[in-house]
Write a structure and sequence with these properties.
The protein contains 2 helices and 7 strands, in the order E-E-E-H-H-E-E-E-E. With 135 residues, the chain is α+β, with helices and mostly antiparallel strands. The protein folds into 2 domains: 69 residues; 52 residues, no CATH class. The mean pLDDT is 88.
Length: 135
């Protein structure tokens, strides 16, 4: 399991920005590598399935050999920028009600809404919360 750490999220409720406390989990390098390998080998597997087909085997396998590594690298770089898990309590500025935010595999900006009044908000970024010993 990945270590969790406290942070503040930037939530924009249509011009009203709030910074609630949250707990974040970043993905590990190993989980990012698994996602990238799955994408890479998935393309190569699809290219291998095309080998017995008479005309298609001249086009798709060579393309798959090139696209597989490129896709794997792109998936790895994109997954490094994401957040694996976010949990926090948010006070909606529109209806003044608390609600729990529990999100997985988040990439910024992310769009969500209040479950009570359906007010939309955007998650733009996060800041790590400094403990007393670090400040």
């Amino acid at each position: 399991m990945n270590p969790s750490f406290p942070a503040h999220l930037e939530l924009d409720f249509g011009g009203q920005v709030v910074w609630p406390k949250a707990v974040l989990q970043l993905p590990t390098q190993w989980s990012n590598m698994k996602k990238a390998l799955r994408a890479w080998l998935g393309v190569w597997g699809a290219a291998a399935l095309c080998l017995p087909v008479p005309v298609i085997h001249l086009v798709f396998p060579p393309i798959g050999l090139v696209v597989g590594p490129i896709l794997g690298i792109m998936v790895y770089l994109k997954s490094r920028k994401g957040i694996e898990h976010i949990t926090c309590e948010v006070l909606c500025p529109r209806c003044q009600k608390d609600f729990a935010l529990d999100l997985r595999s988040v990439h910024f900006p992310a769009y969500e809404s209040c479950p009570h009044c359906k007010a939309g908000f955007t998650l733009y970024s996060w800041k790590a919360e400094l403990s007393d010993s670090q400040s």
